[in-house]
Amino acid sequence: MADPIATLRSSIRSPSDAIRWACVLEATAPKAGNVYPSQSFADLTHVHFVTAAEITATHLGRSADRISAAMLSAVQATREATGTNVNLGIVLLLGPLVAAEQLVGGSWQSRIAKMLASLDSLDGGNIYSAINVAVAGGLGEVDAMDVSNPGTEIDIRSAMVLARDRDRIALQYATDFRDLFDNVVPMVERSIVEAGDMLIGIARAHVRLLASAPDTLIERKSGQAVANEVQRNAQAVDVDDPASMQRFDDSLRSPDHRLNPGTTADLIAAALYVLLRQNPQATKSST
């Protein structure tokens, strides 16, 4: 059976290509509780995600830009075009990945460590502004270092370290993306290769990731007990059984979308970018 990832990777010519494909594939796969072509929210549709994918690819693909400025402009342009914060988490994850990819020497993850260590107060201000443009106070509240309440000097890395236990995107910044490279990328790759299909594999990886850890967006919106219950329900899903997958998807649908596992979806988009840009064997973290 042909590897769908390798087949698509052979057509990728630039970071922008990979960003566009990663975002559109993630948004199109029938992932439980998320928006996809046949499932919309009252204020959010698949078209919003596709629009945001193009904007993200355009802005983050400008290699001459300071990456934090590109991240801010991507979120601003998306807000203007769609009226949503649909790509905030994806931009927060893809920005460091794209910037680190351009550095020389070492594994991709080791380059991310260097890139994150180099973030200064201007970068912190740009990233903080992106979060505020997207109206994302839900990243949490931790006094002086909270990303939603900065002082005059913005140390975004320290803010993310403080938020790491309640936000899995912040965890990536705090650990040089070790969680992404060690856990998410291998799961997404295995699920796609086993399925022999990108979209089916992504949907299965999504459930498996939800089974392995609570989604932190659900936890912030609905509390730890609810997030843990969703995790237990995901553990009971047979990913090879479409009916089981559908029941789980149905269980996450509610008018207020408080069970939308959005952080897990963002991590999948980031993993797809990694898989489309480079053989994952070259990205694994060192022990």
What does this structure look like?
This protein has 15 helices and no strands. With 287 residues, it is an all-alpha fold. The longest helix has 18 residues, at 178-195. It is 63% helix and 0% strand. It has one domain (4-280): Triphosphoribosyl-dephospho-CoA protein, CATH 1.10.4200.10. Keywords: Transferase. This is ATP:dephospho-CoA triphosphoribosyl transferase. GO terms for molecular function: ATP binding; triphosphoribosyl-dephospho-CoA synthase activity. InterPro entries: CitG (IPR002736).
Q: Which regions contain 5 or more consecutive residues with pLDDT less than 50?
A: 137-146, 280-287
Q: What's the name of the CATH homologous superfamily?
A: Triphosphoribosyl-dephospho-CoA protein
Number of domains: 1
Shape: globular
What class, by secondary structure content?
A: mainly alpha
CATH architecture: Orthogonal Bundle
Total of helices: 15
Sheet with most strands: none
Oligomerization state: single chain
The CATH topology is Triphosphoribosyl-dephospho-CoA protein
What letter string, H or E per element, gives the SSE order? Answer: HHHHHHHHHHHHHHH
CATH class: Mainly Alpha
Mean pLDDT: 90
End-to-end span in angstroms? Answer: 32 Å
Strand content: under 5%
Strand elements, count: 0
